[in-house]
Amino acid sequence: MGKRSALPRRRIPKVSRIVAIACLLLSLGDKSIAQTPVQTKSVPRPPMGWNSWNSFANIVDSDIVQQQAKALVASGMKDAGYEYVVIDEGWWLGERDSAGNIVVNSKQWPALAPGQKDGDMANIAGYIHSLGLKAGIYTDAGRDGCSMYPDSGPKYLNTGSEGHYDQDFLQFSRWGFDYVKVDWCGGAKEKRSGAVRYAEVARAIQRAEKTTGRPLFFSICEWGSQNPWFWAPGVGGIESTIWRTGGDIIPPVVETLHDPEHEKRVITLQNVLDSFDTGMHPEAQHTGYYNDLDMMVMGMRGMSDSMDRIHIGLWTIASAPLMVGSDLKRLLPATLSLLTNNEVIAIHNDPYGLQPIKIAEPTPGVEVWAKPMAGAGRRAVAILNRTDGGAQVNIDWGQLGIDGVPRTLRDVWNGRTMAASERAFSVPAHDLVLLSVDGEDKKPTEYPANKSEIDGIQATSGPTFARLEYANPSSQVAVVRVNNTSGLSTALALPPTAKSTSGTIGLILPRGTADLRFEAKGVAIRRLYVYSW
Ligand code: GLA
């Protein structure tokens, strides 16, 4: 464990307050542009919670999950918005009964209350719910899954859901699970198409949801092997999803195993940066559809305070899922303070949910990233210093599309308002400064739309922020395709606008000239505003 310091704890907001702030931001509107908030049932923000794999691998059991769920509450993380407790691989080792139902080990998952049966996963899902949290589970889209014990062998076969999609996803939902992570070890081994298989899974999930009336959030985990950023948004008609963009930050570190292999595993800054770098696909990400940079390793062996800041700063500015894979009972106050910082969470939960744009790299390895946020002129800015020496960085606010100087400028780590004229920032070696900025947008280019397409959108200076005003009076997500001149084609999913006449979403157009084609019937595109920074 690196050198750490205890930072003062912050006041922790209730989730409802965060969502209320997010909705308010969305409704603030751009003074120069008539902007109507998206009228969705709730903002499908990137998920936040805990996942068992990084710290417990295949030794996961009912006791561990109960302890971690309790720690999620006691640490203040639940109040900060972390809601899912996800049981990853190892909960099941591949046995089915003659009807094909999953057979669960009764010692690993015993009854937890009178009237319950041993070996019923509804027990643990119910326990998680009793703490006011949501429960997640794991399977594979292929036949065999990844399963090995503890994480390097022997291999257990038949731990995937192939051939049992309807049966398994309905079972997960009936047990009471709210989230399912679907891995790809079996799918990869069988050389399947990810786009086809995950669409089938998505449809099975929706059928299960219809039967039980319980939403089952879909987490795709094929590690970016078949470019999911091109096909995952809206796959199989799903309303919201995340997709992993790369491999695991590190193999699991199970401290209690005292296994020499696990003892050797130490996280490096490069592990975390690699995951961020491979996960940047901003043109695929927008409200409800998120690139997943992997479970977080905050506070795990090898992580220092500054590495924790870089880690959460990058995941937050990228609106990536915040699924913490650490042993929550071992987290130090400094790490917890970062995880529960309400300004961090507000940036993460911004209703546009966009990834940032790299606006400057004054010297190699010193990078300025800016995320456009809902509400006119709002940005989050991360100044990342990957180098071994301290850096002084001057920000040109014009490069963030801001006219003049910001109205307000906040240093997020320290919760302090800075002088709005401030533009020089010091960033220590291997560290990250996170700012939240509020200013006046420079005037965008406006594209009025015809019925089914907008052609020739200029985004020639690099990835470009745009706001799209549309109406989708149906009750279903509508998918629009964005094609650009370099042949890149991404999907944009537009939530229903319900009673409102129009909604607005943020998007990042890929560099070049783009055309928007609307595949969905009944969706009207009102206007597109393109902000060339
Ligand atoms: C893959 C995934 C991990 C974890 C393990 C379980 O490696 O990427 O997140 O689920 O499988 O074996």
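^ alpha-D-galactopyranose complex. The first strand starts at residue 48 and ends at 51. Confidence is low (pLDDT under 50) at residues 1-41.
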